[in-house]
Each structure stands twice: as structure tokens, then as C-alpha cells.
Here is the input.
Amino acid sequence: MSFFFTKDQQNISTHFCYLWWCIFLFVLVTRLHGQEPIAFQYNDQDGLPSTTIYGLIQDHENYIWLATEHGVCKFDGKSFKTIQSSEMEGQEFLDVEIDQDSVIWLINFSGQLFKVDHNNIENVVLKGLPDQSQFFDIFIDSKNRIWLAANKGLYLFNRQTSEVKIQDYYYNKKDQRRISTSFGEGSNQTIWTSQPPSPAADTITLFSPTHPELPAIHLAGRYALRFSELTSGKLICFAYHNPLLGYIDSGQLIPIFPKDHPIFNHPIYQIKEDRAGNIWILTSGGAYCFDQNFNAKNNGEPYLSGYPVVRMIQDGENNYWFATFGDGIFVMPSLELQSYSSIQSNLPSNKIFSLSTNDKGELLIGMDEGWVSILHEGKFQNFRLPKKVRTMASFYHPKNKYFYVGSDQGMYYLKNNKVHYLNKLSSIKSFSYDEKNNYLWSGMSYSALRINLSTLKRFKLNNERTFSVFHDSKDRTWIATVKGLFYYSQDSLIQFNSPTEPIPKRITSIQESKDGTIWLATYGQGVWGINDQQIVKINEQDGLSSNICKALIYDSNQHLWVGTDKGLNKINLSTKKIELANNLDGLISNEINALAIVDEKIWVGTPKGLSSFDVNTPLQNTTPPPVKISSIRINDELIAPLPEHELAHFENRIEIRFIGFSYQSRNNIKYKYQMPELDSSWYITTDHVIRYSRLNPGTYTFNVKAINSDNLASEIMASTRFIIKKPYYKETWFTILLFSCLIGLGIALLYFRFDSIRRKEKEEQEITQRINQLRMEALQSQMNPHFVFNALNAILHLLSINDRKSAMNYLALFARLIRLIFEHSKQKMISLENELEFLRLYLKLEKLRFEDKIAVHLEVEPELPIHQIKVPPLLIQPVIENAFKHGLLHREEGGELFLQFRKKDQFLICTIEDNGVGRLKAEELNAWRPKGYKSSGLQTTKERLAILNGISNSGINNKVELLIEDLMDGNQPMGTRVQLRIRIV
Here is the structure.
């Protein structure tokens, strides 16, 4: 909502000119004073279009938006970007608001309404608005409705149609009074606004456009009213330059402050509640802070005293942003870190070298130019030494209640608010007080001394430059010199040596923790701890901000505070966790010279002044910095960043810009990024832009995280993907098409040649296959006379011996066998069942021929599907015949024949085994036969196998293997085993 207040339309320009002139004069004569948190400032030199600011918000993407005298801009922590539109009739904007859909709404002094959505600014031309209407306020309520206050009424805005609807019930047409320039929303989503006084009566009317049943509130006077909502549901109404501030309750305005309250000494611009429940009243004299009961904080003093503070927000990191008239923006990282400087207070010098405290909670501050101050209840009491020297050391004597001061040219003490000279000593660097013996141990430029404060007698301990001294709980005094570290105990000065590594030569401060560990602040090697000859080191690798340490102090919560040249470190000695406070957190300076603790409050002395905060204040920024990809350029052309980008092969030069939001880090942000398809490693940079040139075709994912000044990284990384296509000549479809064309061309050129060759090869294959089939049939038919010959010989033999019965049986079996041979020889394949029937007949004939001297054992595997398995006909019989004829025939006694059928994998295994004389003996016994004689049965079988396998390779799914094995008993033949492996069809 705006803070522009009007009386009558014709007096708008006059009113504002007068207002700006008053503010200008006020700013010239008022400035900050007293204790105050550090605030860093942004003005026109940083890129702000104007230092006069009317509106201030943070959007849902963490950008800060400002409505200024010279335009609207957004800030990302690095740079200000002014939003421009050719349709703007004026650059002076009254207000900037954001709705629940993340749309930014703006109104300017020319009465124009603009909206910004995804960085696109649009002039909203309103429909149904009376002529010569001018806006004074925009308000977005909890229902996401947009209310507009204009010089001719109160309107509701319709986003979809851009129409406005006047609320006639609340518009006094008779006296033409306008609605006020402010809205407010109270409990039960009740909207309140007001009408200014009429010319006839000095009466202001407060009413609710959403709840007309509520009674109007009438106030006497001629002033404009404004509203502010609290999280409690209370609605505060206040006047800009009138002593009126109260709650709207039950039809009444209940005052919060009396009319003579100091808060009314300055015009009030805004009342705002922060996340901690503090209520801020922003005035032309600064920002006042109150609790929920309106009890003043900060001792009743305003923050940014003397500055006209018109707007305040808390960003995502809980930084406080204060917008001013004429002085730009101030950002306070923390309200806890308070600071004093010579500009803000009567502190005589900013260069602080020593701090010490007393039992009254007072702080003694030693500075340059001979200045010494005592801070008590926020006030400084200043003293000056006779000579303009530096006060390098100080301590408080609990018995005589004096502060003792060590300088470049001697010792002094403060008594009765006066400086008293004690004695002349060389340049004093360090003090340590031994209360038990009333000794003061002093480290100086040329020696270390023990001074008896009762007698002022001095005892010189060495002749070396001494940086620091410390008296511990074991009655030892530690002395750090240019020659090393010593401790004085029982009248002896003993050098401390580490068994593992040399002790640093420059030790700037010494402290003792509760467990008796002696802690050393070194100039260049971090912090060292000594406990029973054991050394503990804490340095930059452990998270210390710097190895150059200048001051140490130990608090009651087992924290060791280390002042360095790069901020203040808080070390938890139990967990070794380190927290850092520096100027980004609100310290007045990163270079720290001295530390002191008073009532759980740590005081930090620096070359730029004094800072303080509670020792229990969290120092770590626990808000992970959001990060986003802000822009992308492809081949130098700017495009909108999207989750995925599909690019041509030549669009391979990519620039990616990103931004991390950590306003407390003040642009001291690092980024870690990766493109895992190129390298899975994460890289660290302080740049906001990464460039990739000439990426090869493929898919690439860019990931980035922001790292704030406390080394806290983004929880959610920003990512975008690039899909770079291959050039068309490298695409698969093009390769396929090219090869298809080449193949087609080859086919076209060689078609006739290949066609004739294929026809010829096909004819040859058909002829070869037919020849093989004829040969197979011939071989099958060749076995018929062989059977006939052997069978007839057997019958003839039986007749010759006059065994007519056997001959007749043999002849009957033979006839049946001949019939099966004729049937099977006509077929290429028969079932194993038919083959077994044939073999059983054949075996009966052979047993008859051998007069049952041969025992035949036929074994068929029980689960063998003999009716389904197909085998070549008349293939096994010649092998059995060969066993009878060449193996068993020559045995003097009867023999045995074993015939087995079983299945293994995809093969039928047929095993024929005899216990005959063996193949070698059979060859000897057959030597009497005519030369050139061949065993026609087995030879025929081998030829059939060769043809069968040849046909199988030509496409017929059949293959047979023949394996012959001689059975031996030592060197004696024991028979023959033949195995046929027939592929099952």
C-alpha cells in the first residue's frame, strides 16, 4: 500500500513539494547517534535509480523490489535492474505490491496500474473506470482480491476481465469526497478504509466495504488515516502527522499512546510487525521498536536515528531492510550486534587497542592518542593521558577498585575520575594480575616484569621482547617472547618445548579454559592449546577465519572466542564447531584487537570502533542461499531459461548466468557447478557466469549451487538441460537412408547378374538335393538284397540240417520283416516305435540263426516318447548286423548283445555293445576273404550318415553322429561299443 496522502485532487502537487522540502531540511540537521547495529547502505552510487523510495517488498523468487522516484527496480544482491515500459506516463511510483500468484503490481503518480509477471511488464487498462480517475492506493487482501482507491471512489479489480467495480455504498456522491489512500484488514477478513473530512465538517469516517453491517467510526479532525495489520488480527489505525494511533475494536478507535508520547514527535510513515513479534513504528526521525505490548526497546531510542524511514521488510535471511526518503536503503543483518563509533557517539576515538572490565559491569576502553573511556549504562566517561600514547593493556584491581592502564610510555591508574601516573616503563604490550600475591605481570618491548603492587618493587624476568603474559590457575605465569614460550614457577623461568614441533615465536594472547588447557593466539599459525605436553591446533583448515589471531577470551559456556584480522570466531571446545561473526553479520570491523565479556555480553574492540552482542547469539547464517539460473545465451542470443532446451547441432556455444540470494553475504557468494556429462567433479567459482563453447551433440545437464559467506550451500540446486541434436548427416535416419540408397543402387546395377546367379544356384541346389535323395533311396534299397541274401542263407542252412520247423518260423518272420523293409524304405523318417518293431523282428531272426547262442538285451528308457521321436529308417539294423557278423560270429561260445535307447538333451542315444572278438581280431579272421571285400552293411550306414548330414545342412533338421569304441581288458579285446546320436525331430 502506498504512503501518499492527499487532501483534494488539485492540491496533490503542492502537498508533495512541501513534504519533500520539509524532509530535505529534516535530513540535513539530523543524523545517527548512540549505540546502534551496523547497517550497510545502498544508494544511487550503487545503481539505485533514486534514493527516494516509496515502496519495498521481497518477491517469492527472493528479489527485492523498490518503488522509487525515478522508476521501479529489482535487486538481486549484486545489481539493481530498472523495469521499463514505453507505456509509462511517469517514472515516479507510489507503491509496489505482490499477490499470492507472485505477480507484482505497481501504481505510479500518473494513476497507471502495471503488473509484472515473469519479468514482463504490462500496462493494465482498466475497464469501467470513470474519466479523470486517479489512483492513490493498491491493496491485496487475504483472499487475493485487489482493491484500488481513487479520487472518485473505491473499486474492486477483476484480474480476468480487467474490469473495476465501484463500491457505491461507500461513495458520498453529494460532497464528492474521495476514499482514503490506505486500506487495512483486521480480524475475520474485515477490510477497513476511510473518507477524509468534508468541506462542511472536520469529520473523518472509518468504515468496512466488506462488512457494511459494522458501524462506522467518526473522528474529529482534518488528517489522513493509514492502517497496519498485526499477526494477532488486530488492526492499527494511525495518522501521518497527528497524535493518533490505536486499535479498531467494537466500533471504536482505542488509543495505544497518549497524545504527548514522544513517538508523535515525528510524522509516522508505517507500522510493521517483524517475524520475532516486534512492532516497528517508522517515522521521519528513525525506526522505533516495541514489543507486543508496545513497551519500547533499544532504551526507547530509534534505529537509524535522524533518517526518515518510510518502509521496512525482513528478507528470507531475517535481514532488516529500511527504505528512506532521500538516503536510499539501509540493511541491518542483526539487531543483536550493537556498535559504537566516534561518529555515532561521544567515543573519542575509533582505534581501540585494549578492553577490561570491573565488578560493576563497567568497560574500560584503551585507544590511541592517549584516550581512555569507561562505558557505563550506555554512556562514555572519557579520560586522556598526559601524553598522546596508545593504551595497549589494562586491568582492574579488585582490592583498591582502580583501573590500571599500560601505554607506550608508562603505567597509569584511574582514581576519583582522574588519571594518576604510577611509574615509567617501556612500551607495555600485556598485563596479567595475580590476585593471590598481588602481583602484576607485565609484558613489554624489552622485557617481562613482575611488579608487587603493594610495594611497587619490580623483578625483571628476561631481556627479550615480550608479546603477552598470563597467570594461570596452577600459579604459573606464561610468558611469550621472541625466543619462544616460557613459564615462571617456583622462582624458576622454564622454556616450554613441544616434543613434536616448535612452538610459534609470536604469541599475541594467552588464555586458560576450564579444563586447564592453556590456549595461545598465534600470529600466523592459528590457535594452539597446551595440556600436559599435548598440543591441540585449530587453524584455517578447521574452519578458523584466519591464522592471524590477535585476541582470546574464554566464556562460561566453554566457548573460546578468537579475534582475528578476518572476523571473530566462536569455538565450541566440546564439539570444535566454529562460528564466525564479521562485518557481514554486523561487526563494525573484521580486524579485532581486543575482547572482553561483561554479564554474558562480549565486547569487541576494533580500529573502527566498538561492537557488542550476547555471547549466546547464533552467529551462523542457517538459511541456505536460494539459487536460480537467471539467463542463458545460445550463440550470443539471449533466451529464457527453461528446464530443458532442445538445440540444433550448430547451437553449441552456451553461456549460463546464475544468481544466489544471500543479501547478508553482500555479494560475497561462491558457486559450485558441474556438467556431469563432461566431468562429474564440482568446481568452485566466484563468477556469476559459465561458458561452454563447441559442445558436441549429446545431452548435457548443468547444475549449480550457491555458497554464502558462512560456507552454507543451497539445499536445492538450480538445473537446466541442453539436448544438442546431431547434424542431419550424422543422424541414424540419414545413415539408414544413405545405406538404403546405396544398397538399392547396387541392387539396381547388379540385379540381372545376381538374379541369373540365384536362379542357377537354386537349380543346382534342387538337383543336388534330388541326387542326395535318390542316393538315399538307392542305399535304402541296397539294403534289401543284403537282408535277403543273409536271410535266405540262414533258411537254407536250416533246411540243410533238416530243421524244417525252425526254417518255417524263420521264413514267417523273414516275410514279415521284408514287408516292413518295403514299407519303411519308402519313407524318409519313421517313428522310433516302428523302428523298434522292425529291430525286434530282426533280432529274433538273428537269434534263430545263431540257435539262441547269443543273448540279446534290449533296453528302452521308460519315459522315452517312442511314438513321437522320428528316426531315419533302416539306420540301426546294419550296425547290429555288423556286431553279429564280425564280433559275435567268431566267438567259440555264445555272446551277448546290448541294445539301449535313451534321451540326452536334444539327442536320441542308441548304444549297440557286444562282447565279441573285437574289430582287430575280426579283420584277422576275415583275411581269407577275397581282396577288395568290404563289409557292405556298416559301409552303407556311413554313406547314409554322410548324406543325411549333408541334407541336414541344406535345411532338413536332422543330424546323426556315429561313434565306435573298442572295449579292452588290458591288451585283450573285450568287444565293441557303437553309439548313434540322432537329433530328435
